[in-house]
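User: Quick sanity check before I run a bigger batch. Here is a single chain. Can you write out its predicted 3D structure?
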Amino acid sequence: MLILQLRTINRTAKNFTEKHRDLFHDLFRLSVSRYNDVRKTAQHVLGQGMLLYAYSYRALLSDILVRLENKPEVADHEFKVSPD
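Assistant: Done. Predicted structure follows.
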């Protein structure tokens, strides 16, 4: 597993910038959209971005945790995952 992580880190020569973080936040908001096509495309692009930038998921952890809290105002479509 450690070798795989090192390969991932070495493969990603690009830095994760503030603009990338903003784009990831926008994609995350779109990935929980009530519209299936928008949700599906955003989830796909976000997944590809996470593969490209190692540990980029950390930028979204707070957004993810907010949606996982037991709140009645969180809509059902925010939990849906669109299969590729």
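Residues 2-79 form one domain.

User: Great, the batch can go ahead then.
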